[in-house]
Amino acid sequence: MLSMTNEEVKKAAAFFTREIEKLASGRSLRLMEVCGTHTVSIFKSGIRQLLPENVELVSGPGCPVCVTPNEYLDTAIAYSRKSDVMITTFGDMLKVPGSSSTLAKEKAQGSDIRIVYSSLEALEFAAKNPGKKVIFLAVGFETTAPTAAAAILMADEAHLTNFYVLSAHKLVPPALRALLASGKSHVDGFLLPGHVSAIIGLQPYDFLSKEYHIPGVVAGFEPLDILQAVYMLMLQIHDQTARLENQYSRIVPKEGNPSACTILSQVYQQTDAVWRGLGKIPNSGMSIREKYQAFDALLNIPIIVEETKEASQCQCGKVLRGLLQPSACLLFGKACRPEHPIGSCMVSVEGTCAAWYKYGAGR
Ligand code: SF4
Question: Is 180 found in the same domain as 57?
Fold first, then answer.
């Protein structure tokens, strides 16, 4: 697909669009793009406008920053106020509102908060600052968790005693199961995340078709990838079958990445986790195994978190379950804008509200 000429891309896009329209005729369908990177690509490329009106794309719980609840942010903020702590974090966490502050505000008031581009960079900060307890905010799905696990293994090998991880790592398939089990989010087909699937492979999504009879297609991130994946979903829906298919086979092997999975299970174990909007989901999080608990921030650095609460009027929870489009939120574009976000979905570059605001909702 990457080696196609512009003309070939246009032709293929026209073909998929035409066929999707034919296959959708007489139906009203909701397809969920699970991944925040898909959401952004869909808005940026105008795919929503290319699809017929009776095929609606809704976003799911696939933006890691968005699904991280205030309780985690409040804990990170409380840690940042300790004089012997240095917080290391990806940049998009800075502006996410906690119950009463943000990491950006704490940084402005003197907290030692450093932006990093990987967990390994956080490790370097720990090695260079032995007088500080360096906490890495580990927010992300199966894609980023292996690098945090690798950082813990390296810290262990280097006998670092001032590196800690505050884990909010989450697993995508249990969230999809919870979404379906709730019975509230009607979805006719899933566009499944390419990056996550490159790690976990295809098998963890089997339940979609086997237990819920819902088709799923692992999709790449180019606009043409997404259109083709929608077309593949439409073919299944039209034929009244439900399978798991892989549109992104050039990157996603059926078995995923066994080495990354081995590192993950060496360091982490599955645990229940709280998701914004979805509540506590069994076995949807990752906690550090006993062997590496010396690197678990919560177990080693005492902290008291004042009362935690979610922003009362923010509808992120519904947006993340595909129950509400951002424009239906009363605060969208008014009290809540990227420069003054009320909820996480307006902060993250992968947030649905931010994408609607930046690229326009279309229809
Ligand atoms: Fe929350 Fe803002 Fe989105 Fe409304 S527009 S759901 S307040 S993030």
Answer: yes
